[in-house]
Design a protein that fits this description.
554 residues, mainly beta, Immunoglobulin-like, Neuraminidase, six-stranded mixed beta sheet, 42 strands
């Protein structure tokens, strides 16, 4: 039996060696004539493959690029349409030995073609032409496109109310979808002038989106497109009162609505003014939604100020004291309040409390607004402002048991970014970065990025804030578009006067054009480069929570 195994192994090695040796001595090749065939003409392909004297092909396989094939050694083929075709010859049945050439088939008049099978909305396509010019005569071009076309190569043609270009090829994209676009090329070859019209259909595409929650309005959706920005659409999903955070998962958007009373309330143990909730709604069908939990008639302090979801759970923070966690498909009804902060640790969705993780000067602070929650790599990240500012990292094992408090030490993984009062943050898991908005100290206000360790923090946006409690609460990372997005509201939106030294906000914006209200974006920071300069994804939208919908949709 052992002999047979060795014999089989040796035979296998010999076979592979023989194949490789033969492959090294075989050079596939072919030529074709005529060199400039027209449609309807016969094209003769001559096989020029060479090999050792004793080599013989075990098969011939031709693909002509138009759907037709042949097994002849040197076939003849007729193309019925003008175009550019890739012809491939395979000289072995294993398809390891191949040769490909590009073949242009001409018409009696020039033909327009593109470098893509279909022209798509906001995606660049290159328009080219095929023109029969066997004597290499001088050629001039004049392309005409509709005003829906966008390209640095195009200029306005006022006489024809369209756009034109005199380049040999044109790269354009189109800003209207599901329509026919008419393209015209006037081409002069020597003394001959041809007018070549063409029609292309602009196909819509599925794309990722940014969802934007307006205070007191609906959630807006705007797709992330390759070359530009279409108009947003209204999902019909209510944003709620103060939707500081929204998140997506399982094709749903989860809205964390803090309610009307979002500021610190000293009598939070007895207050009953809460009117916020967590809701989940299907992004493509606003009627398909359900409420996860509400705090109606309970303390506004137990509002839903920040939230996070993963594949299994919803996490949220109240104003400053607690973290909670529940399954994604939960419907919990009215929030449970057990009458005291210690008794609250028995609530079934309780996760953690500040004085179970380190207290006051040595750790997390009570009565200071939570700046967000994230669970990443089996570690909890909890951001705070005020005297206990920064992001605190802890494990499940750091959460102390009932009636136990820790007033002397921080969570085992410690605090990072403790120089900053953090209003919101998110993690770029691919590039291992934290993006966070800062409300204090005054000289650090803005949007920042740091390493996961909190080191090398760098400010991206220094625009002034409207209110420390509101400010930038929505931050989203999209690794495919290589952008971080954030919702910014200028102090102008809350009636503030223009900054000192300016008579109006318009004057101020002329000096600081990226300090206007809107959804901003910048290229992501990586190991090798900082975040990019600030641009607008959508100017003018007054939003709080934003998030990425990674599911491709029309």
């Amino acid at each position: 039996m052992m002999y047979r195994k060795y014999h089989s192994l040796l035979f296998f090695i010999f076979t592979i060696f023989t194949f490789i040796s033969c492959s090294d001595n075989v050079t596939p090749g072919f030529t074709y004539s005529p060199e400039m065939p027209k449609r309807g003409h016969k094209v003769t392909f001559t096989n020029t493959t060479t090999g050792d004297d004793d080599w013989k092909a075990d098969s011939w396989g031709w693909r002509f690029g138009d759907g037709y094939t042949s097994t002849s050694e040197s076939p003849v083929h007729t193309y019925t349409r003008a175009g550019v075709y890739t012809v491939t010859l395979m000289v072995d049945s294993n398809k390891h030995l191949t040769k490909s050439l590009e073949l242009s088939v001409y018409d009696t008049i020039p033909v327009i073609y593109t470098d893509v099978d279909s022209v798509e909305y906001y995606r660049t396509a290159t328009f080219k032409f095929l023109a029969y010019n066997p004597y290499s005569e001088d050629v001039t071009y004049e392309w005409h496109f509709s005003n829906n076309a966008v390209s640095d190569q195009l200029v306005k043609d006022s006489a024809n109310n369209n756009l034109k270009c005199n380049d040999k090829t044109v790269k354009v994209y189109f800003t209207q979808r599901n329509i026919d676009e008419y393209v015209n090329l006037e081409i002069t070859i020597g003394d001959s002038i041809y007018n070549v019209p063409d029609t292309v259909f602009i196909h819509d595409i599925k794309a990722r989106s940014i969802l934007m929650a307006q205070k007191g309005g609906d959630i807006l959706r705007q797709r992330i497109l390759e070359n530009g920005f279409e108009d947003f659409t209204n999902t019909g999903i209510s944003s709620g009162k103060y939707p500081f955070n929204i998140k997506t998962g399982n094709n749903l958007v989860y809205i964390f609505d803090a309610g009307d009373n979002y500021e610190y309330n000293a009598n939070w143990l007895t207050d009953t003014s809460g009117n916020g909730n967590i809701r989940a709604a299907e992004i493509s069908d606003a009627t398909n939604s359900h409420e996860v939990i509400n705090n109606n008639g309970k303390s506004s302090h137990f509002g839903f100020f920040n939230g996070y979801i993963d594949d299994d759970y919803i996490y949220w923070t109240d104003y400053s004291e607690f973290l909670y966690k529940t399954a994604l498909n939960s419907s919990l009804g009215n929030f449970i309040w057990n009458g005291s902060s210690d008794a609250q640790t028995t609530v079934p969705y309780y996760l953690a409390k500040v004085d179970r993780l380190g207290y006051y000067g040595n750790g997390l602070s009570s009565n200071q607004m939570s700046g967000g929650i994230c669970y990443f790599d089996d570690v909890y990240f909890w951001a705070k402002g005020g005297s206990g500012k920064g992001i605190y990292r802890f494990l499940a094992s750091d959460i102390l048991t009932a009636n136990a408090t820790n007033t002397t030490s921080e969570p085992s993984l410690g605090a990072i970014l403790s120089d900053y009062s953090i209003r919101a943050f998110t993690i770029d898991e691919i590039n291992q970065k934290i993006y966070f908005s800062v409300t204090a100290p005054a000289d650090k206000i803005g949007l920042w990025v740091s390493n996961m360790s909190g080191n090398n923090a760098a400010r991206i946006d220094d625009a002034p804030m409207d209110d420390a409690s509101l400010y930038i609460t929505g931050i989203a990372v999209d690794n495919e578009s290589n952008k971080v997005y954030w919702a910014y509201r200028s102090p102008e939106t809350v009636g503030a006067s223009a900054p000192s030294g300016y008579t109006s906000w318009a004057d101020y914006y002329s000096d600081y054009p990226t300090h206007r209200t809107g959804i901003k974006m910048a290229s992501l920071a990586t190991l090798y480069k900082p975040a990019g300069s600030v641009e607008y994804f959508r100017e003018g939208i007054i939003a709080y929570g934003i998030c990425l919908d990674k599911y491709l949709k029309y």
